[in-house]
Design a protein that fits this description.
Elements lengths: L1 H8 L1 H18 L2 H20 L3 H9 L3 H9 L9 H17 L3 H13 L9 H14 L3 H14 L4 H17 L3 H13 L5 H15 L4
Helix pairs in contact: 2-3, 4-5, 6-7, 7-8, 8-9, 9-10, 10-11, 10-12, 11-12
Amino acid sequence: MKFLKFYILYRLPIVILLAVSGVLLHIYADAVSAWLCYIAAFISLFLYFFIGTMRLVQEAVSEGDVDKATVYLKKIKFPRLLFKPFRATYYMVQSNMALVSNNLDTAEANIRKSMTTKSSILGDTKGNSMLQLAFIQLKKGESKEARKSLLEAVKAGISDKESLAAAYLQLCSLEIYRNQNRIAKEYFKKAKEQKPKNDELVQQIKTMEKQIARLPG
């Protein structure tokens, strides 16, 4: 694993080293060894542009190490050249980073870029992307746009029950704000049906349940 990490981080210098070695072998040794170096250099250059450091980014994100993920992301100089699955993930992670630092405009711009990068390998991630867009819009105070995004997210399909419960809770809150109590209660019921395990969501449901009980209609 250490060798793989070293290889990913220093792929470009390795490409140069392989190319130089190939030239020297061509001059002073044999053409077969030289061509092996050329092929290895080409493959490494290909991986540098079309995959980048995304494997290390994904590992850092899964470990919750935001600082390390940021360092690895900055090493990708040409994100538009990444294969579509990696490009979509790249922009999604960039959006998450910007959202954490409260850079909402950048977060929204990146999640929209991720949404336009469709990939059959990733499957349909529209629901999760729309959900993130909705949360960004809520933080920006754009409740009308956020409601539309949440409805589209639910319609498109959200991959896990925790996120789906969060979407329904947000819709419930927005409907209460719009004085649509009957609809709010329906969304709250759907949120509870997901039976989320996340402590924050469980607490939100308990708090919302008290508010729902006081609603007329």
